[in-house]
Amino acid sequence: MSTTVCPPSISHRLKAYRMSSLVSRRSFLTGLSIIGAAAVSACAQLPKQSLEVADSLNPPMPEQTPAPTVVAPAKPEYVSMYQAVEEDGYKLPAIPFAKVNEKFLRQVVDDPTGEKPGTIVVNTVDKFLYLVLKDGKAMRYGVGLGRQGYSWKGRAIVQWKRKWPTWTPPSAMISRDPKLEKWRQGMPPGVSNPLGSRALYIFKDGQDTLYRIHGSPDWKSIGKSASSGCVRMFNQDVIDLYDRVPGKAPLLVI
Questions:
Q1: Any idea which fold 76-253 has?
Q2: pLDDT value at position 149?
Q3: Taking a C-beta distance cutoff of 8 angstroms, is the pair 201, 212 a contact?
Q4: How far is CA 212 from CA 44, 116, 163, 164, 254, in A?
Q5: Are 228 and 146 in contact (CB under 8 A)?
Q6: Residue (of 215, 124, 207, 202) closest to 167 by Cα position
Q7: What's the predicted TM-score (pTM) here?
């Protein structure tokens, strides 16, 4: 006797299909929940393998490093011009000329003054001192100016010159700064002396103008205005000027 197996009815088939679809939908939604949770937790930490893959797909941008500073080589003549000087027992430090505007360093230029050779011309506007040379040239030096440096203009002469001069502060300066009283009779020469290594004393019609061209221990004041003083120069520059200027040299301050 044979047994006949009847195929499931269509209703049974539909019921089974609905059940399997429901299970599949629940599994799909559960899978999305797991993926979502994993995605959130990935903001905090990714597996090492995932990080390596991400880095390979998005390599880090190279760090922006600043361009190297290009420093022009020092001119050999400036090295020798502004080196340390030892003279008469005094030791002048070297001038850090690389920190100075080059226009204020000693140099030969075309003479802009039209004065005869041997004349000193101080331009109080541009803060230059010119020593007129031959053949239309001039030696130009940078200077710093104080109130006295601006207070007198005109023609005069270098009456006399001094190496390692004594500095005597005027009474008005002592009144403003009583600490200078100890130098009323004169401050001995030296590296810290405000007149520096050399001084040129300016006279007009036989009278002292109290106007001086001199060295200064304060190299930063060259090319600038100061609270006091006459015409300041780098100590190394005023030594050079001193050696070039003849006695009774004419002077023009403009």
A1: L,D-transpeptidase catalytic domain-like (2.40.440)
A2: 60
A3: yes
A4: 76, 21, 13, 14, 15
A5: yes
A6: 215
A7: 0.69
